[in-house]
Amino acid sequence: MQITSGLLKAIISPIIFLAGCGGNSTDSPSTAIETGATATPPPTSAVTPTGQASRLQDSRIYTLDPTALPFGPMAGVAAETDRWAGVLNGSGYRIEVPKRWNGRLVLYAHGYDGLEPVLKVSDVPIRRYLVENGYAWAAASFSKNGYDVRAGVEDTNALALAFTTIAAQNSRPLPAPSKIYIVGASMGGHVAAAAIERETLETANNKVRYNGALSMCGVVGDTDLFNYATAYQLAAQYLGGLPATTFPVTDFAGKEERIKDALWRIFPLFPTDQGRKLSAAFISLTGGPRPIAEDSFKLKPFQDPVWRRFGDDGTIEGILTKNIADTTGIAYQLDADPALSPEEQTMNATILRVTSASDANPRRTDGLRWVPKVNGQFDVPVVTLHSLGDLFVPFSMQQIYKRRALANGSDRWLIQRAIRSPGHCDFTITEQVEAFQSMVTWEQFGTKPAGDDVLNPAVVANANYGCSFTRNTTGPDDSGALNAVRKILPSCP
């Protein structure tokens, strides 16, 4: 896509970045590169007298305003519903049940809310479709903000288990749901994928067996997300002429503008020769050549949230006590040729390599890991959506998930769909509804829906990739900014 100065305002001004979570993986193209300097940072937390490491997350106080929980009927929806709101184990919740309930319950897991001290409940994006078709839905605020997927899984499961009790307390006795599905976006997509994993069923304190899952823009490669973020930062520093020598890079903020000046004439629209190399490295790190990715790389509202994460220490803002990021298995590419050129060989041999602490995220005896795993071990229908241009949670997450599912024989339960969107979680309601319908029909009748091949490089690089499930038709619940961005992107036939 050619972006002229005349288009600049039209592109930048309407974009609203839908915040979520932030990675890539050692499952990146090519094999592990063992050479080069390595860095394993020391633990960043204190140790309690009992020997249990203390986390920054444990010291944070999150509060909920109960007066913000109640909610009214959705505008334009004729279906009558009961709506309840309250607090369960420190997590706020909303529940909506149609008067003509079909017996099925949908749990919704929201995305990353930063370290905001105030907890919030997000309505499920496909609320209109659900209540008009008889589904009950429930959503939790989670008892903690930050990238606390453990809290997300436990609090969502607890709400599912309490559904009939809450209904009875509100003078509507209900039978147990005949089916329970989980839907999540961004970090919530990690929650949804982790909730159906074998390890979660074995170790969660609140155990729920879901009948199917829809993960949208999800961190389905779990901690490999942070490998990507670290690798992208190190590549930017290397190509920007200020390579990192230690990790974490504690003085990154002081170097950031000089790095950007070396990579772009105008960040991030007009790259220098070094900036074009970084673009190629980014494409390789995030899933290989594919439509939309280069366009997204040039848009500041999509780059800025990624760069704000540069300089992190690998503990995921104190969710862990030790570094989880690992770049030892990443082969950096500076062009579309998978063979390593002499320049790429030099870069891979000399760029700083970061090694994760082996015990950064172990299995625990008190419930889930601090960052629950998505091992690819599941046996219920799963449908995923992922935009091709996502910089924050890149498309490579889907490739990692597919490889893990293949390795565990779970791939027969997985359907993945690519969407031709530039940002993070910017799906139309139509795309989300179709994905949900496909998952439920599959679970109910055994009819496996269509999906996209995410692993074949030639298929992914095709100019029409992502056209099969992209739906630009919008309605009253869609974002106007999303429409504006999509209109300037290469269209499908």
UniProtKB/TrEMBL annotation:
Annotated Gene Ontology MF terms?
hydrolase activity
What top-level branch of life does the organism fall under? Answer: Bacteria
Where in this protein does the record put region Disordered? 28-52
Q: Give me the stretches of Low complexity compositional bias.
A: 31-50
Query: Is Hydrolase one of the keywords?
Result: yes
Sorted alphabetically, which keywords does the UniProt record give? Hydrolase
For this protein, the record's InterPro entries field holds: AB_hydrolase_fold
Q: What is this protein called?
A: Alpha/beta hydrolase
